[in-house]
Design goal:
Blueprint: H1 2-19, H2 26-33, E1 37-45, E2 52-59, E3 64-67, E4 70-71, E5 82-89, E6 92-96, E7 104-112, E8 115-122, E9 125-134
Antiparallel strand pairs: 1-2, 1-9, 2-3, 2-4, 3-5, 5-6, 6-7, 7-8, 8-9
Organism: Bacteroides faecis
Protein name: Lipoprotein
Keywords: Lipoprotein, Signal
Length: about 140
């Protein structure tokens, strides 16, 4: 009987841990990121020299937005802004650039104090942990 109580207690503890693994719910994430521009590394680089580029993504309330890329070293814009479509689901920010660039997923999104963090996947492949800052 003691073992049964012990196992039931462990199972209850595990179910609580699994239930609270999500950082934030989708509505909270949406409300905190929409209508703002977020600056950071989303895995882009220039065509010629493969210089890393910084993204400045604006996320509109209608699920569309823009990504204005610029060089890290001097801040100059890199081409025209890329149009994008975005959504939030299951704690993940999905960014689709159509046929211009591979889609991005920012998983396990957490937003606080003007900073968005998560794990970036490009076209389904792991890229790394990233931080975006609200402009």
């Amino acid at each position: 009987m003691k073992n049964l109580k012990k196992y039931v207690g462990v199972l209850m503890l595990l179910s609580l841990l699994v239930g609270f693994t999500s950082c934030e719910d989708d509505e909270t994430i949406f409300d905190r990121i929409v209508g703002r521009t977020w600056i950071g590394d989303l895995g882009f680089e220039s065509d010629r020299h493969h210089d890393p580029l910084e993204s400045g993504i604006y996320l509109g309330v209608d699920g569309f937005g823009e990504d204005q890329l610029c060089y890290y070293d001097n801040g100059e814009y890199y081409g025209k802004p890329l149009r994008l479509q975005w959504s939030v689901g299951n704690g993940t920010l999905y960014i689709d650039y159509g046929n211009v660039a591979p889609p991005r997923e920012l998983r396990n999104v957490y937003v606080s104090h003007g900073r968005m963090t998560g794990t970036l996947y490009i076209n389904g492949f792991y890229y790394g942990d990233v931080e975006l800052y609200m402009q």
